[in-house]
Amino acid sequence: MRNHNDPRHSFTGRKIDPPAVSSEMTVTQLIDFYGSTGYNARRLAEAAEILKDMINTDSTVCLTVAGALTPIGLGKTISAMIENGFVDWIVATGANVYHDLHFAYDLPVRQGHFDVDDDVLYSKQIVRIYDVYIKESGTLQAQDLLVQRDIKRSKDIPQNASTADIAYTLGKAAKENSKYPEKSFLVKAYECKVPVYMPAISDSSIGLNMLPLLFEGKGIFPNVILDVAESAAILWKSKKSGGLELGGGVPKNFFQQTGPALYQILKMKEGGQDYLIQLTDARPDTGGLSGATLQEGKSWGKIKTSHRGNVIVYGDSSVYFPLLCSYAMSQCKPRKLKEIYAKKDSWVEEMKQVYMASKRSKAL
Prior knowledge:
11% strand, 15 helices, three-stranded antiparallel sheet, alpha/beta, six-stranded parallel sheet
């Protein structure tokens, strides 16, 4: 039955009055400009408001990072959000962690071209990510040796390690040994005790670099199910929670599945996330998770409600993300760091005890 009283079906929206553009506009003024228009410009303004609300309500904020964003230099943008207390935990592809470290160790990454002969690039040992060039021997193989060395030598990785423990170790090593640690978001995450999860670690150069360690019988290898436990515990301990999703893929679903982990599997907490923002170019009609609408997630218990606190902005996150970050830093005061990395193990143990007590009581 149609609800004729639904305000979305009435002519009561904000009047569109063509806004003025100027040479001295701030990012805040630009976002306000977008908010008075329509389409994805207006969605971006909605995302900015939701992000501001997420931060000002002291929600636990997760940043998910898919797509190759660190190779184009966005690691320091992530660092700024961490340092201001606007990002409390991160879910990233292993590739974004791996390429982020190039900048700390001063390994060359250059602007290149997208319309090229890749056979020629291969002959010159140049790898390409669209219009970004990376040297095979001077960057990738040099980085490989560093990753292997730091995982092999580390005494900080526990025997039962999550991928966040691996990331913490790599961040610490880069802090202590790299030439430009300030250029790495992984170093900033280490300094601020922000856990960085790589749930698809085997699908990345971080995972590939564990292959020699496996053959040599050296190093400690991550328990990815512990990632599931730790991420669920973060939602379990959060009064309010939300996320800013850059792209989709595994990072998006891993973050959102914290709701079903608690509700469907452990039967400990219902609701999911309070806020969700996604920046994506993926379509919903192909059935892929990257393009799945945030509202659809309500049916899985991934989000509190499909009616508010969530928005998808369609387009390129490499364009939108810096705008949202600048807006947040201009509109929100820095927050006290939650330092979740230092608390995650005790939270998992506490969650385990509550779960086991519930099972015992049901068995009686």
